[in-house]
Design goal:
5'-nucleotidase,  domain 2; about 575 residues; six-stranded mixed sheet; Purple Acid Phosphatase, chain A, domain 2; alpha/beta
Length: about 575
Amino acid sequence: MLRYDASKDQSRAMTVAMDRRRFMQVAGASLMVTGSALTGAGFFHMKTARAQEGGFTLNVLHINDMHSRIESISRFDSTCSDTDEADGNCFGGVGRLATKLWERRGQLEDEGANVITLDAGDQFMGSLFYTTYKGKAEVEFMNAIGFDVMAVGNHEFDDGPDVLADFIDMAEFPVISGNTVIGDEERLAGLVEEWAVLDVNGEKVGILSVLTPDTAVIASPGPNISFEDEIEYLQDAVSRLRSEEGVDKVILLSHVGFVRDQEIAAAVEGIAAIIGGHSHTLLSNDVDDTPAYATIVENPAGKAVPIVQAYAYSKYLGDLTLTFDDEGYVAEATGDTLLLDASVEPDPGIEERVAALSGPIEEMTRTPIAEVAADIDGSRESCRTRECEMGNLVADAMLARTADQGMTIAIQNGGGLRASIGAGTATVGDVLTVLPFQNTIATMRLSGADIVAALEAAVSGIEEGAGKFPQVSGLRYSFDKSVAPNEGRIQSVEVMQDGEWVAIDEGETYGVVTNDFMRKGGDGYAIFASNALDPYDYGPGLEEAVAEYLANNAPYQPVLEGRITEIGAD
């Protein structure tokens, strides 16, 4: 097998046989469905004549939401320990991704197949590699692996548009986001392309991209960058791409989430397939309780639009094969997500470069903080929908750090928690993986009515797994998801006073601690910015407070205490 040499960006791996599971066959010209989205075991066994005769076939290898997982990850999606690596319990990392992607691409190219490699965004934020190198490590490995196109993700704006501009300056592939409107005064202006047109053996393949408009409040794009509605933009852009570029095969490389991807497919005519990201959704035909790879949606013209996504954090590689009919719609599709587990040997050349880049940060990441008595669940699935152990830890740590300032309530957005911590010795690296955003502790005073209003807004996006879901300390609340968003989902709110839970007084003023991103209105907490009394955003780093709290409470025992109750949940 060929290995990566940093001086030879075009290295490729030799072919190794790989089993792939066939998941569906779709007749793009004659699809008949009763609903707009079909999931689970909905297989189609129809082909158009064009497909049967051998229409243009395109293989798409894809990833999404890498989040700076340069090194291999544990089952908790955080950096894998040396012990777990030795025991074969690690996944992903750029070394494994390179091996599997080169292996699969080499096999397909040897067979004379057409292959493109796509990234649906969010390379930034999630490990000390990003904290240290601000995207330069990520783009170096993307160049080496050989991506054809990348979509902009919301986290690409976490440190403002100039950091993204630096990334694009180094990228050897187009970075696209069509519904992102960038002011001429920004250095980023002209660097983010609206679309990419790939010449694949004489066939034009158009790649469009959209980014969630929520980026305006969940990241830091600044005042000169805005985001158009995805569907409104695409309804115009698809036709322009087809007419201006002579393209009839249009793939959407999106960063809006699985639910929104289905809405787009149902509303916009002319998109052949959607390669998605943002929601970290695993689509698979082998893993129980996951949407099918692909999920099929009927477009306004009655054509089948396959939608795929490959979880996150470099754990899976998506492997999709599309056969197009004469109109540029998908007539047949096969594929699945490929797990990058210990059976995939990381490429030695890539790993050598990872080790070199990790040198300056390795000693710090391995510094022990405290013993942890049991796993601390910080998973996306838990912390964005219900009380989670990591949410309790972080909120408790914030409250402990500011109790002497009169703070009695802590609120932390679930989306700010990026990983779990396993039982055993917690390190600085573990805490920084959980909290990679370099947020500071922020304090303010709010009325009880404003706190209730903030909670109401924060539980409005549970169905989409929105990151604003509130984890709390010094407060407990119940909500009813059957109530329409922002129409009274919050059923009760209580605060701790003198060792007892009492109903919140909407006319009273309370000391509230949060992180500076939320205090300034981020993640939908606009009321924190507009109504805060005596706000202060420049406290110690949130990661520092959590590390201190773990050390002061070692061995730390994770807790679930009924702080958040869903009415009607089992």
